[in-house]
Amino acid sequence: MNSLRNCYLMAIVSLLAPLLLLSWLDIGSATATKPQLDAKEINAWVQTIANNFEQVRRQLGIEKFERKFEENRVVSDNRNEAQGQQLMNDIKARIGKFTYKYEEHVKRIRVEAEYAFAGHTHRNYSLNCLELKDQPFLRATAIEDKPHESSNNTHQNLDPESRNTVYVMQKTEDVENFCSAPTLVELNPDPRLYGVETNRKVSTAHVPSNIYDASTSMLNAANWSQGLDKVFESNAALDPMLKWQYFGNTEGLFKIYPGIRWYIQTKDLGSKDITLDFFDCRTQYWYLLAASYPKDMVILLDNSGSMKGRRSIIANMTLTELLYTLNVNDFFNVIMFMNSSLKYISDDFNFTMLQATEKNKYTVMDLIREDENRAPQDRQFAPLGISDYKEALEEAFQLLDYVKRNATDLSSGGVQNIVLISDGAPQTFQEVFKKYNFDRQVRVFTFLVGHEAAEEENVKKIACSNRGYFVQISTLSDVKENAQRYIPVTARTNALRRDHFFAWTGVHKNQIKTQLRKSSLSKKSATASSGSSAAAEPESAPGFTVFPFTETASTASPTTTPTSTPNSVNGSGSSRGVGGPGGDNSLKIVYKPSKGDNTPHQTPEEDPAVKNKLFASVAQAAYDIRDNETIHRGIGRLIGVAGVDVPTDHFERLGPAWELGALGYIFLVTNNGHVLFHPEFRQFDHEGNLRLFFNNRDIAEIEMPADESPLYNAPSYTLPLRLGLINRQEGIEQIRRIKTYEDFTRGFNRDFKYFYAPINSTSPDGTISRATPFSLALVLPWQRGSQWPPPLAYRSSQSGALPSEGASPETLERLLQLGPNGTRTCVPVGAAGSYGIGLSGYEFCAFPAHLLGDYNLNPICALEKVLASPEANRTSMNCSAEFLRRVVTDALSTEEAQRIWRAVDNATMESSGVDLFFLWTNTGLSRWHNRTRPLRSDFMSSRRNASREEMYEKTVLLSTEVEANSDLSVITVPLSQEVMANMKANNTFPKAFPVYLTSVIRSRVGSSGAWSPIGVAGAEIDYAKLEESFLSITSGCASPGDTSCVTCSRLNVQCYLLDRSGFVAVSEVRHDVGRGFDQVNCAAMKALVQQGYFERILSDSAVSIFQALAQAVDDAVVAVFGEPQPTTAFAKLTSKQCDTIEKEKPRRLLLLREEIDSKVDEVIERLHAKSNPLDKTAEVKKALVQPYCIAMQSGDQAACAHLCKRLRQKLEITVYVDLLGNCPKRVVKEVDCVLRRSLVKRRSASTGAAASSKGAGAIEKSCSQDFGYCQGSADSCSGDATFKVHIRDVQSTNLVFVAVQGDPNCNCRGCSDIIGVTELRSGPSNYTKPRPPRANPPWGQKDIRLQDNATTCSKRAMKGPQPLGLRLLLLLPLIIAQFQL
């Protein structure tokens, strides 16, 4: 009977099925018998998707390239531990010679400066500039650009030294004061300096805005230092790759070579611009590091009742400026003494010393600022009562003695100082100094604050009797200059010992602020485009009133190009210097102001070519070497610091990727554990701005073992690798770490072998070796006792050899395919008309200037000329013969690339959405081809790093990670913010953003099945085509003609392609692409993680390895606007409390959302009758946006947020993008709950028996039980509303197909993050910073004894003449900005 009954029921169901299906689609009621996705259909879709990707991969021609490489004898080679150690030693030796070369450049500048100073006779310029017959120095801020006659050719490769000219002013009736007159200097793009406009005939000088540049001391400094130009030029001739050279003296004069026009930031105040020039060479790290030994400093800040008001402001400003003078090798603390008691800035800082990192200095200043902003009754540091000087001094001496004897990890190991900031002292406290400083080994510096400061003599005597210095600071304008008066005093010890140590800085942003030519801003300047003569009007320098100049009748013919030498700047070749009598003026051109200036106003800009370049600096102090002034009188005198900037990428090039093999890299760290360079060192945010404290990034925050689980920004600083690096030890470590890509959003576990050793600067002959603060690490992927994947070996073959006379034009044309020689010019990377071939930025030769211009323009042009040159020329340029042999072999093996790709018919490329084919090889050679002409180069111009590209490395890593599948197709989609930017701009519609398919070109290792990557080939695919194909495939049934199956087109089914890191690659909703699946459908992702289909990779904190994804609990708005910036607020509630608030949303909100859903459906139905997107937009605004987003109360954004979420799901892009401006960017919450997201990855079937069954499957979950509220009525979600997640791997790709089928009345997308809400610590505990182990720099000296006998120990506030009444106004923004900081 039961069987018969079942048969009847099945018959009835089969008859009513179509009717039930229609009813289900139309009404959407929750039933227990709704149709389900069929595994057969899913498998068919996934197979079709895999076939489509494989078809694109076959079009790349990978098999043909592999056969050509095999014919050219490129094979895989094994590298064991001994070979890895040898490779590390080779790279270490290269870097040692490299650092030695730069140290010698600095030494030559320093020696010349010392001899020039020793031979100089001081002059008293009583009348300042009025008595000068020449300009004293070329002020970089007052340089006027005289464009070169051939400047209309922006890509000329002439040596800039052959065409730079300087036009120096003569005194006329209109030019009486040389110190305020501008100088006309010819500036040209310099191929040695990233195309920055320079003049290599001269140096220019910068003077801080708070220093009078015509004072006697400044003019004397300009006089004796003018001879440094010949050393600058000599160094540049010895080393074509040398960048900035400079010398900063103790008065603030900063000489820069090559000469540039200094950029001064301007602040628009409406009626006029105010210039903001904050730069002072004496507060730069290179100056501070080289000027004196590392120091411990205890700052005593008088906070008694007499320090209220203006004095307190000056004192705090002085403290801020003092902190700016401390460098990362110094230690400090601040003690406030008031009301007969002592207070440290924080209880966590009691009786200890802080390393002077940027973060610690900022923390101290921030704590003081926070206290000042509190109500008077809540302040801790409000001026109060009477100060106990004796107790404060004793505390400072005891603290210094403690860290010196018992806590060396809290001390710099160098000189010790006490700084007293006060408005007066009642006595000299000699009993305290006799007890604690009887041998005067602690210097005491005193700063007297205020005009009418009391007990001046007492404060002065405290400093003078303790080898210190006394300064009175009366006004805010006195602070900046006088706060650093102590630096030359601390330098007396090393100056007296003539200790010329070399000080290396960590990484820093470019410090030389070059101004972009104004013609480059307007792109229509006649002087730049047409090649003007000397009569052309120069542009005004910022911050100065400058008039255009015309030639007088007395000048030379305009057709005559003036010539000059470095000495002609001063009018004479004699050594008498500026202001001397009898200068030869024959090489000068006389100008005078012309009437009228109609030049339109243009805001100057800093040159972007070098603005964010990263450098390290090496510096050396210059001393007064006159024996009668130093040795005999016991006075050590610092006269300045010489320095050179070294691009950090030059270090990295000494361990090139083509030599290390795939996934191998090197990095350098300092003695403090800070990163100098590292391939995963992210200095910039998404907008291109430098991250806060980027120069203090610790290696422990990057090289994190996979089994570490740091909490609250506290990675392990005691890892053996880190300790070995900072202690300058040699060693080998094997670590399993997380390799991250794409802004830390994707991560993979991998074993690496670390070879590390200290770097010593070593002379070429090996006879000289000097320690540096750097340690080198070579990192190689490791597996089963050897490097994996193994590196490549280019066996000797005739095809890859270069003839001694150079390659023939026919050979070059076949290899590089640049076009017939002699009929073309080199075009820059990224310009129209490029060749479909490129080369990454590896300087394989020490290029002379003319070749360096070609290299900067397009490295492939320089390669062509080098290959065509005779072997003797290649040897003289120190070209890497091994690199040239490899790159020629790569070119031979890929020369058929264009023919292979052109053979793919346009119809096939069009149907698959392929716009461009490309390949990269291990040497950095790249080729590309696109369907349209001319050849595109925008892709390669932004991805020139070849084997250092993330896409290259990720392709190799995944191909070795996923069952060593070298046939893997790796799909890469943009980050979510790039997707949203494309959609908002909508400038490529109907095309979308590009998606990339890449696969490895490999070399087999015998018959073992192992292989090594030679390169990566790929295709650029239009996402719109990929999306169209995906929707078409997943909307059809497996059986032909079948229309009854459940597909992804159903309203209650969402289908996705995810990458193996859980990010959406393809979705029915384009806004989802590039986002983590937990943000798109967190319920489904949570289920996949819980059931083991994805596994977590341990996460780090927001500022460490991985990017934190701070967001509101309801991420509907985040889905629209992409990832927000991490919140700066701290959570006030626990995770449990936040979850409770989320689940207990009021009934009113649920009803409101139900109402919105109903309205949206009504409006969508009406839109079907409208074809014009503008009409659709207008209808949506009127019916939905106006009532729910505009008319709603401003405090209730939940309705508008929910509407935006629904519109995102329902509307087409062209309509929805226009509505984005009405959507709230962040929902206002009752609490600020901060979320953190961990990295996840697809669990591999080969990782264990427990995971082997997780290749495919389906999970069924209850919405109401597991994931919070449902979107429909309460009755329809009473426990039986479920959803099901289906998962399949897409064969031979890095993608995973996921389909989510849910109850149509239940929205399961609104759940919490897969990790959940986490609580961040707030309040004072945030200031409890870990104390990472560190080592003192090599130039630090133990047990230093102070022996100087200087009697000069005081300096009142500067009372020198002010050049303009505007000077104080110019200084005011600086004071305000620094005080606010």
From TrEMBL:
Signal peptide residue numbers: 1-30
Localisation: Membrane
Membrane topology: Single-pass type I membrane protein
Keywords for this protein: Calcium, Calcium channel, Calcium transport, Disulfide bond, Glycoprotein, Ion channel, Ion transport, Membrane, Metal-binding, Signal, Transmembrane, Transmembrane helix, Transport, Voltage-gated channel
Ranges of residues in domain VWFA: 296-487
Residue numbers spanned by region Disordered: 515-608, 1322-1341
Record field: compositional bias (Gly residues): 574-583
Compositionally biased region (Low complexity): 522-543, 552-573
A single GO cellular-component term on record: voltage-gated calcium channel complex
Xref: PROSITE patterns: VWFA
GO MF annotation: an example: metal ion binding
SUPFAM superfamilies: vWA-like
Pfam families: VGCC_alpha2, VWA, VWA_N
Domain of life: Eukaryota
Main location class: membrane
InterPro entries named in the record: Ca_channel_alpha-2/delta, VDCC_a2/dsu, VWA_N, VWF_A, vWFA_dom_sf
Name this protein carries in UniProt: VWFA domain-containing protein
Organism for this UniProt entry: Macrostomum lignano
